[in-house]
Design goal:
- Helix content is 44%, strand content 13%.
- By secondary structure, it is α/β, with parallel strands linked by helices.
- It has a single domain, classed as 3-Layer(aba) Sandwich (Rossmann fold), CATH 3.40.50.
- A seven-stranded parallel β-sheet has the order 3-2-1-4-5-6-7, sandwiched between helices.
- It is globular and about 50 Å long.
- The mean pLDDT is 97.
- The chain binds NADP nicotinamide-adenine-dinucleotide phosphate.
């Protein structure tokens, strides 16, 4: 899909990888970007430069009323970026309760499903367009110190594959982005070295631009891990399985 002159919506646009998506979409000539955030006050810095192409949108992806309102307002988008994510980085057993596990599913899986269902008719109406889902390399291998997050990203990967098939009929391109640890507040809980958000976003938007219609491996660090996964999936999983949650 051509990014120049596109109309995009980015969830979790206020910080981290989402904010980088906005910067890069602006650079690549997007005509309009709905910058969605739970608290629009957190968009203040992003909006400070006064780029008239940015439209602030209040959006908690777990709130069905806000999702419906967003789809009514942003009824002209051609690119939906499901970026918003949550990670508690806890073990499945070590976590004190299941609250964070449920929240990870609510944001990462149900949030992605909810946004995509709401915006599928919009994308159909505007010519097909594209859907970009921020996944994780942890969709393919499970990290015990982030057990329930890994599970939520595996669910989102599976969903992304089915969405691609279902949305194919209306000509919507679907890209799932696999990435390893990246320098954001979420990523700082993961071991160094970490990729920059720019590396991830550049590869993700290059894939959109190139018409790619499958999962992509973003950044050199992810490519190295992905190669290890392809060569020996069980070996990589065994290595990851040594990363157990810290017990307090
Ligand atoms: N950083 C990494 O190492 C890494 C690696 C692979 C994939 N990813 C994925 O990349 C995406 C972006 O992550 P990041 O590293 O930029 O994380 P981050 O810095 O923690 O930012 C997370 C973003 O998601 C938003 N968000 C959380 N819950 C939300 C909800 N219910 N509704 C709407 N927005 C919500 C946050 O908004 P608030 O400011 O309101 O909390 C924030 O804007 C996520 O899907 C993540 O899983 C990250």
């Amino acid at each position: 899909m051509e990014i120049s002159n596109s109309v995009a919506l980015v969830t979790g646009a206020n910080r981290g990888i989402g904010r980088e998506f906005v910067a890069e979409l602006l650079k690549r000539g997007a005509a309009k970007i709905y910058v969605a955030a739970r608290d629009t006050a957190s968009l203040k810095e992003l909006l400070r430069e006064g780029d008239s192409r940015l439209v602030a949108l209040p959006l908690d992806v777990t709130d069905p009323d806000q999702v419906a309102a967003a789809a009514a307002i942003a009824a002209d988008i051609t690119l939906l970026v499901n970026n918003a994510g949550y990670a508690a980085f806890e073990g499945a057993i070590a976590a004190p309760n299941m609250d964070d596990a449920r929240r990870e599913m609510e944001v990462n899986y149900f949030g992605t499903l909810s946004l995509t269902r709401a915006f599928a008719p919009v994308l159909a109406k505007t010519g097909g367009g594209a859907l970009l889902n921020m996944l994780s390399m942890l969709a393919l291998v499970s990290l015990p110190m982030a057990a329930t997050y890994s599970a939520s990203k595996s669910a989102s990967l599976s969903l992304t594959r089915s969405l691609r098939a279902e949305l194919g009929a209306q000509g919507t391109q679907v890209v799932g982005v696999l990435a390893v640890q990246t320098e954001t507040s979420m990523g700082t809980k993961l071991p160094e070295p970490r990729m920059t958000p720019q590396e991830v976003v550049t590869d993700a938007l290059d894939a959109i631009q190139a018409g790619t219609n499958h999962e992509i491996v973003a950044g050199n660090q992810t490519r190295a891990i992905h190669e290890a996964f392809v060569a020996d999936p069980k070996g990589l999983q065994a290595k990851m399985s040594t990363r157990l949650p810290q017990r307090t």
